[in-house]
Amino acid sequence: MFSNECLGELEYEATTSAVVMAGIFLSFLTEYIGHRYILARSARSGDSSPQQVDNGSSKSAAEQAPAQPAHQHSALAGLGHHHGGDPTNPNTKLSVLVMEAGVIFHSILIGITLVVAGDSFYKTLLVVIVFHQFFEGLALGARIALLPGRTFPMKAIMGAAFALVTPVGMAIGMGVIHSFNGQDRHTLIALGTLDALSAGILVWVGLVDMWARDWVIEGGDMFAAPLRHVAAGGISLIAGMVLMGVLGKWA
């Protein structure tokens, strides 16, 4: 968007990269603050839990000191029961919500673009977007399915939000198609900013919440997986990169 000739020359040539970095930072900030809040709540609930004491006997400070780490561990272990898992786990609700936010921003723009695109690009764009949304849906759906808890209502709402957001974008496009000017400077800036911001969110989710935590952080599915699983996962990962890169040529 920012390279469009109708936009003119930008004073800052790395505008797209700057907005992408802003999206990455906002994703980091959201997850970090959310995880600290969850840990603080867990610690408070652990401190307020009643402690069993012996009848009329008091333990010395030396006897109580070793019990403190176990108490802290139980508080963190209780986090999984009350909040759906270790906050460093990529399948926590917070991480999946951040991922879905990026996908939703992106999907709205896709829906608008599909409607306002010219007739000569419509068929190609439709095929590319169908495959693009299909693979995004697979990734997001897999994370939603791994969340703890029942399917209804939270998981169903998250799945429905992804399924409906592109049609909503198309409806917006149909509403503005007669007044929409894809070459207007303000339109290009608005769409380019939203596109780059959602790209930054998806970069964070892809690299940190999915790739790094699955492969190189202890506890990830691939960190100590059998070699055949690692090979299959690596081939699938590379194939997905290549396929999405090819689709991106026409998207």
From TrEMBL:
<feature type="transmembrane region" description="Helical">
    <location>
        <begin position="94"/>
        <end position="117"/>
    </location>
</feature>
<dbReference type="InterPro" id="IPR003689">
    <property type="entry name" value="ZIP"/>
</dbReference>
<feature type="transmembrane region" description="Helical">
    <location>
        <begin position="124"/>
        <end position="144"/>
    </location>
</feature>
<feature type="compositionally biased region" description="Polar residues">
    <location>
        <begin position="45"/>
        <end position="59"/>
    </location>
</feature>
<dbReference type="Pfam" id="PF02535">
    <property type="entry name" value="Zip"/>
</dbReference>
<protein>
    <recommendedName>
        <fullName>ZIP Zinc transporter</fullName>
    </recommendedName>
</protein>
<keyword id="KW-0812">Transmembrane</keyword>
<keyword id="KW-1133">Transmembrane helix</keyword>
<feature type="region of interest" description="Disordered">
    <location>
        <begin position="45"/>
        <end position="67"/>
    </location>
</feature>
<feature type="transmembrane region" description="Helical">
    <location>
        <begin position="156"/>
        <end position="176"/>
    </location>
</feature>
<dbReference type="GO" id="GO:0005385">
    <property type="term" value="F:zinc ion transmembrane transporter activity"/>
</dbReference>
<dbReference type="GO" id="GO:0005886">
    <property type="term" value="C:plasma membrane"/>
</dbReference>
<keyword id="KW-0472">Membrane</keyword>
<feature type="transmembrane region" description="Helical">
    <location>
        <begin position="227"/>
        <end position="247"/>
    </location>
</feature>
<feature type="transmembrane region" description="Helical">
    <location>
        <begin position="188"/>
        <end position="207"/>
    </location>
</feature>
